């Protein structure tokens, strides 16, 4: 069975991206077996390969939290150092202006009026002369003002669209309307090929048997997790995971863990005190995933098809 495998906490890709932003390189242990050597450990070097953190003589020693704390503290120190080393802008000095020379008070001279000696004679002539008729002044034609239409304002350029927001993972119950998406998802399990009608019928039967299934929805169905309550005499009600599948393009992102938490909550409400899972013996990724979530291998699983057994008994009965 194919499952999602992820670390608890921050992922390897996030740690590697944080290190690259700081101009560093993340080193991860190549051990694949838990409990051996520096399995699950990390280290940091600069781009020249010089060790900075978590690299010792016996291998890698730093955890994911150690790497994350180092990178964040390094970022804060860089900002503080930049602020401390930036000189303050000097205040602008004003150049004093030279004092203006004082002006001595000058006496105010009044201009004497000049009186023409023939002014009384002019007034007498004007009074004795006949009044001239006033000629009407020709009105100047008004020039029409031509209204110039205002140019239309240029449309403002639209801002370039930013990156599309990432969809939020939503874990919800499966319905028969999800049969098409579930059939495509379950086809990633080796040896299974179901039609949409078969998936819808199996969902209805599981619901009647008080079993359940949740889906991981990211705008599209990217995972499913099914479970059932098994009534036993010696262990009471046992919760059993019957299917856990995450689409290949969305693995190692926490999808499987989110669905498993929803299934465990539902089984706890149903009165189960234990949860067990059946995994294909050839699927190593699923084994590592369950071990990372504190599952222990407690038994073997033996399978035989009922139809083959029944047909064999009919053949032997006919020979007798």
Terminus-to-terminus distance: 42 Å
The CATH superfamily label of one domain reads: Gcn5-related N-acetyltransferase (GNAT)
Structural class: alpha+beta
How many beta strands in the DSSP annotation?
10
Shape field:
elongated
* Major sheet strand order: 6-7-8-9-10
Strand content: 15-25%
Instruction: Evaluate the radius of gyration.
Output: 46 Å
Highest CATH level, the class of one domain: Alpha Beta
What letter string, H or E per element, gives the SSE order? HEEEEEHHEHHEEEHEHH
Number of helices: 8
Q: pLDDT under 50 segments (min length 5)?
A: 1-8
Overall mean confidence score, pLDDT:
77
Characterise this structure:
By secondary structure, the protein is of the alpha+beta class. 32% of the residues lie in helices and 17% in strands. It has eight helices and ten strands. It has a five-stranded mixed beta sheet with strand order 6-7-8-9-10, sandwiched between helices. The two termini are 42 Å apart.
What is the strand and helix layout of this fold?
Elements: H1 12-21, E1 24-28, E2 42-46, E3 51-53, E4 55-56, E5 59-60, H2 64-85, H3 119-128, E6 170-173, H4 179-186, H5 196-208, E7 212-217, E8 221-232, E9 236-246, H6 255-269, E10 274-277, H7 284-292, H8 306-319
Parallel strand pairs: 9-10
Antiparallel strand pairs: 1-2, 2-3, 4-5, 6-7, 7-8, 8-9
Helix pairs in contact: 1-2, 4-5
Brief synopsis:
With 320 residues, the chain is an alpha+beta fold. The protein contains 8 helices and 10 strands.
How would you describe this structure in keywords?
elongated; 17% strand; acyltransferase activity, transferring groups other than amino-acyl groups; 8 helices; single chain; 3-stranded antiparallel beta sheet; Aminopeptidase; disordered N terminus; 320 residues; alpha+beta; 10 strands
């Amino acid at each position: 069975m194919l499952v999602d495998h992820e670390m608890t906490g921050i992922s390897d890709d996030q740690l590697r991206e944080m290190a690259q932003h700081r101009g560093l390189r993340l080193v991860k242990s190549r051990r694949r077996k838990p409990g051996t050597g520096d399995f699950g450990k990390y280290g940091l070097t600069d781009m020249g390969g010089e060790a900075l953190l978590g690299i010792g003589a016996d291998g890698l020693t730093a955890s994911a939290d150690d790497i994350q704390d180092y990178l964040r503290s390094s970022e804060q120190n860089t900002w503080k150092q930049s602020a401390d080393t930036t000189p303050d802008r000097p205040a602008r000095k004003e150049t004093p202006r030279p004092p203006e020379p004082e002006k001595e008070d000058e006496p105010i001279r009044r201009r004497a009026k000049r009186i023409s000696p023939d002014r009384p004679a002019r007034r007498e002539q004007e009074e004795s002369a006949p009044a001239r008729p006033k000629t009407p002044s020709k009105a100047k034609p008004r020039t029409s003002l031509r209204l110039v239409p205002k140019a239309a304002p240029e449309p403002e350029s639209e801002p370039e669209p930013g990156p599309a927001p990432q969809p939020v993972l939503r874990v919800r119950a499966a319905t028969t309307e999800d049969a098409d998406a579930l059939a495509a998802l379950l086809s990633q399990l080796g040896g299974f090929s179901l039609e949409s009608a078969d998936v819808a019928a199996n969902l209805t039967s599981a619901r009647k048997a008080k079993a359940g299934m949740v889906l991981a929805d990211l705008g599209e169905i990217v995972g499913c997790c099914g479970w059932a309550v098994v009534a036993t005499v010696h262990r009471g009600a046992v919760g059993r995971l019957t299917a856990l599948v995450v689409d290949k393009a969305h693995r190692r992102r926490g999808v499987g863990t989110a669905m498993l938490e929803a299934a465990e909550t539902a089984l706890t409400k149903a009165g189960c005190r234990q949860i067990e899972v059946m995994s294909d013996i050839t699927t190593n990724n699923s084994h590592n995933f369950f071990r990372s979530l504190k599952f222990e291998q407690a038994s073997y699983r033996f399978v035989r098809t009922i139809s083959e057994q029944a047909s064999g008994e009919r053949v032997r009965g006919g020979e007798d």
